[in-house]
Amino acid sequence: MPKTLVNLDAADKAWLDREARLRRVPMTELVRQAVQHFRVREQARSAPTLASVLAATKGVWREGDGLAWQERLRDEWSDSR
After folding, report:
1. Does the predicted model carry a pTM greater than 0.85?
2. Measured between alpha carbons, how far is 3 from 21 in angstroms, rounded to an integer?
3. CA-closest candidate to residue 66, choices 43, 58, 77
4. Distances, alpha carbon 64 to alpha carbons 35, 58, 67, 74, 77, in Å
5. First vs last C-alpha separation in the chain
6. 3-state secondary structure the chain
7. pLDDT (tens digit, 0 to 9) for every residue of the chain, 81 residues total?
8. What are phi and psi of 79, to 5 degrees?
9. CB 19 within 8 A of CB 28
10. d(CA 65, CA 2)
11. CA neighbours within 13 Å on the CB side: how many for 7?
């Protein structure tokens, strides 16, 4: 695991040290968890919404009746069992 040097305010470092003792985990584990939660939240925030994906792909299917095509595929799946 790569090491990273981070400068923290004294109050933040003191809080991290206390929290780590209370949770009985290394302070570095708390930092890793915080970064992971932040990354997941930010990635989810920037992920496209269903509405935007539907709007961007509207009209892409040009092969006739999409429902009939889908049902034909599903029939093939059930026939292969």
Report:
1. no
2. 21
3. 58
4. 48, 14, 9, 17, 21
5. 46
6. CCCCCCCCCHHHHHHHHHHHHHHCCCHHHHHHHHHHHHHHHHHHHHCCCHHHHHHHHCCCCCCCCHHHHHHHHHHHHHHCC
7. 899 999 999 999 999 999 999 999 999 999 999 999 999 999 988 888 899 999 999 988 888 898 999 998 999 887 665
8. -70, -25
9. no
10. 53
11. 0
Task: Report d(CA 52, CA 57) in Å as an integer.
Answer: 9
d(CA 18, CA 12): 10
Q: 29 is written with which tokens? A: 């584990």
Q: Which residue type, as a one-letter code, is found at position 42?
A: E
How many residues are listed for the chain in this entry? 81
Tokens (6 digits) for 52 = 């935007």
